[in-house]
């Protein structure tokens, strides 16, 4: 199964080459391919450039989820929190 990242989907939809996007971001083609493969993350400046290139809100490219998903069978749950710590409960 092959997954496609949002970056790749946007680039293919706009029919823009990897070379063009890498040039716009002022990075190597290899680094951009690593971004598309999910191996590297973009920074805010790069998100702004991609937002302009694809005519979208750049914050959509750098948002983080407000939830944590644990898929562990019986103990599956979704936690909605900005800060979350899970540890052993201690008696007081």
From TrEMBL:
UniProt signal peptide: none
Alphabetical list of InterPro entries matching this protein: Cro/C1-type_HTH, Lambda_DNA-bd_dom_sf
Source taxon at top rank: Bacteria
Location of the HTH cro/C1-type domain: 8-61
Parts forming coiled coils: none
Protein's name in the database: Helix-turn-helix transcriptional regulator
Organism name: Sphingobacterium kitahiroshimense
């Amino acid at each position: 199964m092959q997954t496609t990242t949002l970056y790749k989907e946007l680039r293919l939809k706009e029919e823009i080459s990897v070379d063009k996007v890498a040039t716009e971001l002022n990075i190597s083609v290899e680094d951009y391919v690593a971004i598309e493969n999910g191996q590297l993350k973009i920074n805010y400046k790069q998100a702004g450039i991609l937002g302009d290139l694809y005519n979208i809100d750049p914050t959509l490219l750098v948002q983080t989820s407000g939830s944590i998903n644990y898929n562990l069978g019986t103990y599956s749950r979704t936690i909605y929190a900005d800060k979350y710590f899970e540890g052993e409960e201690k008696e007081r």
